Amino acid sequence: MKQSIKRRRVTKPEKPRKDFPLFPHATGRWAKKIRGRFRYFGTWADDLKGERAILKWLDERDDLLAGREPRPKGDAAGPTVKFVCDSYLTHKEQQRDNGEMQPRSFVEVYKSCLRITAAFGRGRLIADLRPDDFRQLRKALSKIRGPGSLGNEIQRIRSVFKFAFDEGIVETPVRFGEGFNKPTRKVVRIARAKKGRRDLQADQVRAIIDEAGIPLKAMVLLAVNCGFGNTDCGTLTFSALDLKGGWVDYSRPKTGAPRRAKLWPETVLALRTSIAKRPEPKDKADAKLVFITSHGAAWAKPIGSNDPVGALFGRLLRDLDFHRDGIGFYSLRRTFRTVADQVRDTHAIDLVMGHASAADDMGALYTQNIGDERLEAIAAHVRTWLFPAAKKRVK
């Protein structure tokens, strides 16, 4: 016979006075919702009148209302791993909200902070961290990441602690030790060589185009014609297209760098076909988007969600038996760059791809305009590589 379990109901205390700024939360703590997030100020079981809670609230109020993490108080205390990570994420949130940082980059930073707290403990004092701690962290990371991504992860983690020193949160820089260095360029090159090429051959791209349905065919052509990536396709707007003239003029979402490209007649035709059969978006905010899923949603999903463009393309690769490690939708962008480089017009190709020029590239700094004829030459060269037998424009 099953026995019923009676839940014990906990009686919450009353507020000590009407203007008391905190409330008894169901978790048994005095709480307050600040900037959309619950903050807690100790348990109420041993503080029924909230005397200690109100002191903690008054001590932390200014920082919390300003969106800052309260700093630890007292000579015996010191900045903890949690405090440093929270402070860094608050800073990065502001950059993201101001448009200075892409949401995808913020998610990577957030994940890095989770790894830091998981490795060292949230309450660990920064002053207690030693090179051996970082050596062990690198060892754990190297088991799940290749040399290239390991280097990126180490750089993000170093940036968290550099921020703490630059902001005066810690008095001295954190010592990482030689055991927390990024992999050398030689190691990265060897690892990439083992993976093999990550572009596609012309016959493979043609087969993909022939088998792709609507709207994937248009996305594939944008990728190999203009170097578009998954997010570029998912966020492409009607205002960026000039189908009559055959141009796309669209700043790259990832970097904000301007981009302009000549569209092939095959790409224009695929776009027109896709737009003619485009489902109505459920969200009015998506009405400006060129591509809408069969469910009426945007193709560009929130960071951390499944990538529908990559997933659909991956299924097509498997159907064609083209699937292998390192090959995905982004391989089309790599293919475009590989073929386009034969034109030897780096600055024009960068404009097509939305690549921001390096700070020390004086040629790019002094170049004030790139003529459309240079962009047309790039498009023509890649098109001839892909469709060598094509002699006439598709009307």
Largest sheet: 3 strands, antiparallel
Please bin the fraction of helical residues.
Answer: 40-55%
Number of domains: 3
Strand residue percentage: 5-15%
Shape field? globular
Report the span from N to C terminus.
Answer: 77 Å
Q: How does this model look, in words?
A:
- By secondary structure, the protein is mainly α.
- It is built from 15 helices and six strands.
- The strands form two sheets. It has a three-stranded antiparallel beta sheet, covered by helices on one side. It has a three-stranded antiparallel beta sheet with strand order 4-5-6.
- The longest helix has 20 residues, at 147-166.
- The chain is globular.
SSE blueprint:
Layout: E1 23-24, E2 29-34, E3 37-43, H1 51-65, H2 81-97, H3 103-120, H4 131-142, H5 147-166, H6 185-195, H7 202-211, H8 216-226, H9 230-235, E4 241-242, E5 247-249, E6 260-262, H10 265-276, H11 308-319, H12 330-340, H13 346-353, H14 362-366, H15 372-386
Antiparallel strand pairs: 1-2, 2-3, 4-5, 5-6
Helix pairs in contact: 2-3, 2-5, 3-5, 7-8, 8-10, 8-12
Structure at a glance:
The chain has helices at 51-65, 81-97, 103-120, 131-142, 147-166, 185-195, 202-211, 216-226, 230-235, 265-276, 308-319, 330-340, 346-353, 362-366, 372-386, and strands spanning 23-24, 29-34, 37-43, 241-242, 247-249, 260-262. The chain has 395 residues and is mainly alpha-helical.
